[in-house]
Amino acid sequence: MITLYHAPVSPNSRRVWITLLEKGLEFELVEVKLNGEQFKPEFLQINPFHHIPALVDDGFSLVESLAILDYLEAKYPTPAMLPSDAKDLGIVRMVELVTVNELLPALTTLAPVLLGIPGANPEKIDQAKVKTSTVLKYFESLLDNRPFFGSDNITLAEPVAGTVISWLIGSDVSLNDYPKLSGWCDRIQKRPAWQKTEPTPEDIEMIKSMMRGRMAQG
């Protein structure tokens, strides 16, 4: 039995949740409230680094979302979510890693703006917008006439990048200058796995409250 420990507002855990749904796997979903539950001894036995997501499969515990995705692909290869062609595999991996290493830190800086919370540092916001634009332009260049990154079928690039880029929808960081990426985003947003895992208004309010608390602490 697979158990996913997650938080609805986390793109890191949502990407695993979506992958489980896209693969049609049976699993138990356990929410870890990020107000302190991640530090409880029973969770630290699963992930001593007190981060989500964490996944337990038949007694085997995994941490770090990209490692979890690779594990799921290797153990449950149908439907395949990694292409076999070397170039296409390289595209998928680049999208995953650029999302985690470049885009996600930039959007973390932009979070107050995206969530409508005043008080952000203007210089840092401008720098984050430049980095975000660089990533979006790069992703636009990686998309061809196929509906997904490097494939006619959904790959691991979609839950990794899509759960981060979705935070830009409705913000002043528009996707209008990236028509291929905008179309890609529309396609994945219509998939049942995305709709089922969409954060609720209550989830959004919770992350706003957490963000205000962090900003108040300096």
From TrEMBL:
Domain GST C-terminal: 85-210
UniProt-listed Pfam families: GST_C (PF00043), GST_N_3 (PF13417)
Stretches assigned to the GST N-terminal domain: 1-80
PROSITE patterns linked: GST_CTER, GST_NTER
PANTHER family reported in the protein's UniProt record: GLUTATHIONE S-TRANSFERASE GSTA (PTHR44051:SF8), GLUTATHIONE S-TRANSFERASE-RELATED (PTHR44051)
Protein name (Swiss-Prot/TrEMBL): Glutathione S-transferase family protein
Originating organism: Limnofasciculus baicalensis BBK-W-15
